[in-house]
Every structure is written in structure tokens, then in C-alpha cells.
């Protein structure tokens, strides 16, 4: 049994951590909930019992002998507090982008690169990839291993839950006519080709994350990848159109077969029956769903895919918990 801390327990992903730990019957000995000072003294319930939320600070961390600290409290809190949890012996599994590109921090999707977990000994931190990257990875890994990937083009349609509590509120209130607080323009009835901040080169940080994280997770530092990420008025689950050029010839039936046999992936594709994954249908599911699998006739060896994943489950909380489960299994 393990002592588990959740940092950012009151947030969207924090609450999902609690739900999934419970659902999967994770071996929790003691549970500790942390958030900002604002939430200190409030409670959240886990397995029918109320747990006090504490302010995240060294005094509240040091004597708890925490084994796993699941973080989803934003980049600044991760930068400040992840090293402190690690210093007191915890393995931090962090959802923010603060540590992802640190060469001494593994970036892990457990079905894809479990071998990287062992690098955690360097800093005591493991990074959970960006939600839109995670859901593409099991599929890209399978294609890369079998055919070799020449180039990836990602176009995303991302849910507001990825922007936290205030993102959801902007959509809900916006439907009733209120002005947005989180997004620069109304999200209700709109599509914003803008997630995270803009960079000098014209890309957004979200797009850069997809590009760089894909290369790191697949161990392909020179892979050609590009991305356009958009926020859409959907509550939960990200959808992605992914165009992939492969290095070798393929039969489309073989790609169906390959993905049917890929861990963490459900092929949901029968256009005659109007079967294709949608955000509403995939919300609450653990697997990533793929459909609309078809040849791209405009290039040699191209394939188009429509990939949908629950960004708060597999894209965040579930992936982090699966990393901890994998570590526990590797220990045994
Ligand atoms: P709080 O509710 O006390 O503000 P979301 O991304 O869904 O909005 O959630 C963000 C989470 O991160 C919340 O639990 C929030 O706590 C927490 N948080 C924000 N800033 C800090 C901080 N400086 N230290 C610890 N937790 C923080």
C-alpha cells in the first residue's frame, strides 16, 4: 500500500484523480490532498470518507512519507513544489508542461514507452505528456514500429475541459450570453485556433508541445511533425485529425488489424453503420478511439485517421495513475 498525495485536488484533473484511484482500487494507504491556500480547510470525499485539503507548502509535505504525488496544479506550482515532494522521497507524476522537456525527466505514456520510467531516479519526477499528445501516441508508436513514420500532420479540435474549471465555465456561461473570462473570444458558437500562448515563430505553445513531445516519446528527435490546435465548444474529449506519411507501403486492412491489436486503442470505424468516434461517445472511456481510417491518395504511403480521447481521463489523470501502476508492477 502507498501514501498518495494529490496536488491541485480541487481542480478538474484533481477530482478525476480521486475518481479513478477509487474506480481502479489503487492501493492507497494514506491519502493527502493539496491545493492553494484558498482551498485549505475544505474537504473532498474519497471512498465515502472526507479528506481535509491542505495548503501546498514544505511544512505540510515533509513528514508525510509520500510515495506518489500526482500533480495537476499548473506549471508554476509544479516548478516550485515538485522538487520539494521529490526531496522528501516521493515520485512526482506531473501533469503540467513544466518538466516535460527536461532531459532528466521521463515523458511517459505507459503503453508506449514504459522503459523510460526508470529515468525518474534522476530527479524524482515523471512528466505526463500534453493531453492531445497522449491520445495520439499509442497509434503513432504502432505505425512507427511497423512502417516507420516519415511525417505527421496533427489538426486538433480540443474540449474546454482542457482549460480547467474556468474553461468549462466560459462555455456554459457563454451559451447564456456572458462574456468569456478564460478565452480571449467567446467559445460558445465559436472555434479558436489558439491554445496556450503564441510563440515567435507563429505557432502556439500547444502546437509546439505536440511536436516536441511526439519526438521525445517516440525517441525520434528528427521526426517531421506539424500541428494546428483549435479550441472548440465541446465540454470534454479532444478530437484529432491525424495525417501520417509512412516510410513503406501498406494495405489499409493491415492498419485496421494493427490498431485492433494495439494496447489502449479501440478501432471504431464502420462508415456504412455511421460508426466513428465522437467526443460525447468517448467521454468516460479509458481507451483512445480511432476511426475514419483511410488512405491519403495525395501522397505515397499516406493514411488519415480520426482519433478521439477523453482528455481528462487518458489525456491526464488516468495516464498518470497508469504510470504509478506500471511502477508498482515493475517493482514486483
Ligand atoms: P485552488 O482550487 O485552491 O485554486 P483547474 O486547472 O481545474 O482550474 O485546477 C487547478 C488546481 O491547481 C486547483 O486545485 C488549484 O487549487 C490548484 N492550484 C492553483 N495554484 C496553486 C498553487 N500555487 N499551489 C497549489 N495548488 C494550486
Overall description:
- This protein has helices at 12-23, 58-61, 75-87, 131-147, 164-175, 205-218, 252-260, 279-282, 313-331, and strands at residues 2-7, 28-35, 43-46, 49-55, 68-71, 91-94, 125-127, 149-158, 224-231, 238-246, 265-267, 288-296, 302-309.
- It contains 9 helices and 13 strands.
- It has 332 residues and is of the alpha/beta class.
- It starts with a strand and ends with a helix.
- The mean pLDDT is 97.
- It has a 7-stranded mixed sheet with strand order 3-4-2-1-5-6-7, with helices on both faces. A 6-stranded mixed sheet has the order 9-8-10-13-12-11.
- The radius of gyration is 20 Å and the shape is globular.
- 31% of the residues lie in helices and 25% in strands.
- It binds adenosine-2'-5'-diphosphate (A2P).
- The site of adenosine-2'-5'-diphosphate has 16 residues, from helix 1 and helix 5.
Describe the SSE topology.
Layout: E1 2-7, H1 12-23, E2 28-35, E3 43-46, E4 49-55, H2 58-61, E5 68-71, H3 75-87, E6 91-94, E7 125-127, H4 131-147, E8 149-158, H5 164-175, H6 205-218, E9 224-231, E10 238-246, H7 252-260, E11 265-267, H8 279-282, E12 288-296, E13 302-309, H9 313-331
Parallel strand pairs: 1-2, 1-5, 2-4, 5-6, 6-7, 8-9, 11-12
Antiparallel strand pairs: 3-4, 8-10, 10-13, 12-13
Helix pairs in contact: 1-9, 4-6, 4-9
The structure holds adenosine-2'-5'-diphosphate.
The site of adenosine-2'-5'-diphosphate (A2P) has 16 residues, from helix 1 and helix 5.
Using brief descriptors, characterize the structure shown.
single chain; 332 residues; alpha/beta; seven-stranded mixed beta sheet; six-stranded mixed beta sheet; binds adenosine-2'-5'-diphosphate; aspartate-semialdehyde dehydrogenase activity; NAD binding; threonine biosynthesis; protein dimerization activity; NADP
